[in-house]
Write a structure and sequence with these properties.
heterodimer, A: 149 residues, alpha+beta, Sufe protein. Chain: A, 41% helix, B: 417 residues, Aspartate Aminotransferase, domain 1, 14 helices, binds pyridoxal-5'-phosphate
């Protein structure tokens, strides 16, 4: 039997309650909106990218602890990264949540590894990946809001 | 909440016996006994319904209204027998007024397509309330887009009740072509004053559609006493199977409505110079229907009749009062929907925990509730919340179930406190 504490680790609850980088970034070079129609979670993500490096990042929105913590931890992990590093991080993170076999690559994932418990809860994976999908959209400067459906 | 009428210590319903009739209830989730409080989404099925569906396929299966052989006659008798049970159950005048559909959604779409669609013109209005399920909003929006008519929405109060004076103000003798309201709100639990609404609309000859999806398992319904022109409900929220539902409509209205879908069964004659329609209600049942579903619905109605819905209503009222007290006492909880007259639904939000997190955590304690917008996004907007957690009751729920919910919510408190 899996324990709820594996899902709701202290760090997750802390970031869910007090998300970091929680602001609309001005100025910004990239932005995107994400929406999970199933539960109403929504975020707007803003990035300031200069010379291929994420100089600053912020987000606003509302949602469950998992989606807010994921967005908060992701923004912390991305600051100072190049775009290709950011994309690699997204792939590793996505792999952690959707691939049941492999153990999470904690080295690559850093802080985001605390969300590995989510993979035991298929209905919650969308909450944890909303910020990641929104990041992808922002990096491709997509005009269309992404949804998890 | 109105005062509890029964001070009885013993429930007037034999709930232990009822629980024994529902095999699914007797299982563990994460090592805890299942507590099923998501009856608003769908109810569980008693053994008699499961057996009826299974018996139909094992013994009687055939197509209806076609064969001359024995099985077809039996299948037809089963299917039409279910229609007669529905007629009795909601006290319709005739079986011709009972149209089988896939559910509430299809029943409402049928009315939009075949009744209102052909009549609606630019400048006309359809009147609904702010607490409707999406299935009682979107079909009307689609019609309005096509015709240039306007959808008017009666506001609701902070308690989640229709603001009746606003209803009267928005009801236009010239422009309103249909009033469509829920009997019981799935997001708030409010029992709407549909008798009063129907009387007011009829004073101007405006027909009324009632969405009865959340009502039929919880209170007695008499469509003739109500005077409803259309009454829609789903079998699966009444202890029956999914994929079967009912549109009740007054015969005079059905008579003048064109068919909904074309195909087999709904015609009398077909030729390339034109076709003629079958009699009621078959005109509205194109194609092979959900025969096993209807049989299951018939068995579900037999089951409910064996309980007495008036007793069920009193029992659930008492249980809802208990749940309301116990859940409110947790603190940090805001109830969404505190109408005077309510049925079986407790929607709430917690200060520190999002409904989605609440749902996951209480599930871990074996308690099934729903978290989300409950297909009523305008209600969420009205109360300024993205979603709510919702416990919804049925006659097999007990105070023990409520206590389990409260313990599970305390666990939410511990984690998110
Ligand atoms: C009030 C109300 N109306 C309509 C519906 C739609 O019912 P169905 O999905 O069975 O067609 C529901 C079901 O959630 C409901 O609660």
């Amino acid at each position: 039997m899996n324990d709820l504490r594996d899902l709701y680790q202290e760090v997750v609850i802390d970031h869910g309650r007090k998300p970091r980088n929680f602001r609309a970034l001005e100025p910004h070079s990239h932005e995107a909106k994400g929406f999970n129609p199933l539960c109403g979670d929504q975020i707007a993500l803003y990035l300031q990218i200069e010379n291929d490096v994420i100089q600053d990042i912020g987000f606003t929105g509302s949602g469950c602890a998992i989606s807010m913590a994921a967005a908060s931890l992701m923004t912390e992990s991305l600051k100072g990264k190049t775009i290709s590093e950011a994309e690699k991080l997204f792939d590793a993170y996505h792999g952690m949540l959707t691939n049941q076999e492999n153990l999470p690559d904690t080295e690559r994932l850093g802080k985001l590894a605390v969300l590995s418990g989510v993979r035991e809860y298929p209905t919650r994976v969308k909450c944890a990946t909303l910020a990641g999908h929104t990041l992808k959209a922002a990096l491709s400067n997509s005009e269309k809001p992404v949804t998890t459906e | 909440m109105s005062a509890v009428t029964s001070q009885t210590l013993q429930p007037p319903l034999d709930v232990a016996r009822i629980r024994a009739d529902f095999p699914i209830l007797h299982q563990e989730i994460y090592g805890k006994p299942l507590v099923y409080l998501d009856n608003g989404a769908t109810t569980q099925k008693p053994q008699s319904v499961i057996d009826a569906v299974s018996h139909y396929y094992a013994a009687d299966n055939s197509n209806v209204h076609r064969g001359v052989h024995a099985l077809s006659e039996r299948a037809t008798a089963d299917y039409e027998g279910a229609r007669a049970k529905v007629r009795d159950f909601i006290h319709a005048a005739s079986e011709r007024e009972i149209v089988f559909t896939r559910g509430t959604t299809e029943a409402i779409n049928l009315v939009a397509h075949s009744y209102l669609g052909p009549r609606l013109q630019a400048g006309d209005e359809i009147l609904i309330s702010h607490m409707e399920h999406h299935s009682n909003i979107v079909p009307w929006q689609l019609l309005c887009e096509r015709s240039g008519a306007e959808l008017k929405v009666v506001p609701i109060s902070d308690a989640g009740e229709i603001v009746y004076e606003e209803f009267e103000r928005l009801l236009s003798p010239e422009r309103t072509k249909l009033v469509a309201v829920g009997h019981v709100s799935n997001a708030l639990g409010t029992i709407n004053p549909i008798e009063q609404i129907i009387r007011a609309a009829h004073a101007h000859d405006i027909p009324v559609l009632i969405d009865g999806a959340q009502a039929v398992a919880h209170l007695p319904v008499d469509v003739q006493a109500l005077g409803a022109d259309f009454y829609a409900f789903s079998g699966h929220k009444l202890f029956g199977p999914t994929g079967i539902g009912v549109l009740y409509a007054r015969e005079a209205l059905l008579d003048v409505m064109p068919p909904y879908q074309g195909g087999g069964d709904m015609i009398r004659t077909v030729s390339f110079s034109g076709s003629t329609w079958n009699e009621l209600p078959y005109k509205f049942e194109a194609g092979t229907p959900n025969i096993a579903g209807a049989v299951g619905l018939g068995a579900a109605i037999d089951y409910v009749n064996s309980l007495d819905l008036a007793l069920v209503q009193a029992y659930e009222h008492d249980l809802l009062d208990y749940a309301t007290q116990q859940v409110s006492a947790i603190g940090d909880i805001r109830l969404v929907g505190t109408a005077q007259r309510k049925a079986g639904i407790l929607s709430f939000v917690m200060e520190n925990a999002h409904p989605h997190d609440i749902g996951t955590i209480v599930d871990h304690e074996g308690v099934a509730i729903r978290a989300g917008h409950h297909c009523a996004m305008p209600v969420m907007e009205r109360f300024g919340v993205p979603a709510t957690a919702r416990a919804s009751l049925a006659c097999y729920n007990t105070r023990d179930d409520i206590d389990a919910l409260v313990r599970a919510l305390q666990r939410v408190h511990e984690l998110f406190g």
